[in-house]
Description:
Layout: H1 8-17, H2 24-29, H3 39-69, H4 77-115, H5 122-149, H6 159-191, H7 206-226, E1 249-256, H8 260-268, H9 273-279, E2 282-286, H10 294-303, H11 307-310, E3 316-320, E4 326-328, H12 333-344, E5 348-352, H13 363-369, E6 374-377, E7 391-393, H14 397-403, E8 411-412, H15 415-420, H16 424-438, H17 444-467, E9 474-479, H18 481-491, H19 500-524, E10 532-539, E11 549-555, E12 562-565, H20 571-578, E13 583-584, H21 598-603, E14 608-609, H22 628-637
Parallel strand pairs: 1-9, 1-10, 2-12, 6-7, 6-9, 13-14
Antiparallel strand pairs: 2-11, 3-4, 3-5, 7-8, 10-11
Helix pairs in contact: 3-4, 3-6, 4-5, 4-6, 5-6, 5-7, 6-7, 8-9, 16-17, 17-18, 17-19, 18-19
Amino acid sequence: xxxxxxxxxxxxxxxxxxxxxxxxxxxxxxxxxxxxxxxxxxxxxxxxxxxxxxxxxxxxxxxxxxxxxxxxxxxxxxxxxxxxxxxxxxxxxxxxxxxxxxxxxxxxxxxxxxxxxxxxxxxxxxxxxxxxxxxxxxxxxxxxxxxxxxxxxxxxxxxxxxxxxxxxxxxxxxxxxxxxxxxxxxxxxxxxxxxxxxxxxxxxxxxxxxxxxxxxxxxxxxxxxxxxxxxxxxxxxxxxxxxxxxxxxxxxxxxxxxxxxxxxxxxxxxxxxxxxxxxxxxxxxxxxxxxxxxxxxxxxxxxxxxxxxxxxxxxxxxxxxxxxxxxxxxxxxxxxxxxxxxxxxxxxxxxxxxxxxxxxxxxxxxxxxxxxxxxxxxxxxxxxxxxxxxxxxxxxxxxxxxxxxxxxxxxxxxxxxxxxxxxxxxxxxxxxxxxxxxxxxxxxxxxxxxxxxxxxxxxxxxxxxxxxxxxxxxxxxxxxxxxxxxxxxxxxxxxxxxxxxxxxxxxxxxxxxxxxxxxxxxxxxxxxxxxxxxxxxxxxxxxxxxxxxxxxxxxxxxxxxxxxxxxxxxxxxxxxxxxxxxxxxxxxxxxxxxxxxxxxxxxxxxxxxxxxxxxxxxxxxxxxxxxxxxxxxxxxxxxxxx
Length: 642
């Protein structure tokens, strides 16, 4: 029986007659059709070419778009090139696989139709279906990708970028879909028993192309709209913000690892009188943070935004090989498994999350932008400290003072470094001596854990004593020691299986740490005067059983003995309200006016502005001495990272 498979030259002649080899894209895709190849070989080769085409178009364009959306990831031209290669490769592999499945699946269906009752035009219809499936999948992926890389709440406010991206995505998806259609037709014809098997598609016209493009664009826009939160706002440039003078000098003391019930019991027993005085004012009970990760938790509290908006998802991020930037890390589910796989093949590696990843302004940055005098010490994700935003001793300030060398954004303004460095050694020794003497009589193991933690808080408090000015409108400090001590004594693996007597001794040791913190409060706030307000902000820290947080405020204009429920998102707008700064519509929380006296609320009514403006990340100084590895080692020694 003679071979009825159409000769490849006859097939090419037939395709050229139908106009499929007129366009360069078609010639490129159908170049894999060769004499002697099976339909399967032709299918995967043409699919590979389609994937390569998609990768070449998608990779560079996506990398360029990401450079404006994730400045922490794309830090220069080299990062754009490397990211373009990575994304082009990933997208190319995905399109190759999807095209191969679609082509082979539709060719198989076409073969079944030929084996039964032939239907004229069934083959071209199935080819169109294959192209439509791949085009729709590509368009959906690119829409969801754009939705993901944009911070929540800014998709529609970035219309100048969003609409061109949708147009580009629609055009690229249609091009890939057309290539899949042509490839499916060719493979169908090659698999057919005769070259006379119907091949032609309906005549194309600009009306059909435009209509298809419009339908795809509307579908993409609808999908983007449906996956966008309803509380997102239109874009607006930051307008000058009017500050209502309140006369408040606010000190925010953030203490990590606080068990609220434990603290209240000690306060009632008279063991922590300074804490007790703050707790006697107005109190906002906060739910536990969404993850026991201090970098994520305290950045959320400082910005009033969730992690998907402010960009700090945890202490650790992921560095991509060949790139200077970093990505947030997930560590759980399918994304966590993918991260582990890319780490295994050295495509990515764990790294520390810093202020370079933070996209939202903190309450002290907003206050500084409004012309108020501010100072902050030791808060998470404050490195690199931006100049012109008040006094900032970042979470790397003590490392820089220890190691010396040229500043790399650890302290702002830079002139403060030269004034702190000469007295640093004596300041550090005094804090260590204070930590040693505070826990005399404790068991060796417990005392060692307590003193390591106390040294962290003591150093932060000592530095605050040097930079906190009585004339400042806002002062803030973060104290991590209680969380460190509690994690090492009661929450870590070393606490498992201890007898009750040993656990009781550790509970007593933790009580002593609360007393130590109460003593530190005296050096931070001292005797308050007219207009002085003190806010205690706490979170349960890295405990297995998540308790509740607390915002306790006392001072002029604050109600006494007032307790109510709130949210972590309310903290930043409430702090800014006390300083006379309106809340931004970008924040999901609101200022809790119920915490202040009636006369204060009448004099300072709540106000709203559209936006605080976009946060600009400071570039690293040329000639600086990086402390990335030193910071990693310190966090590892304190039990934050493995």
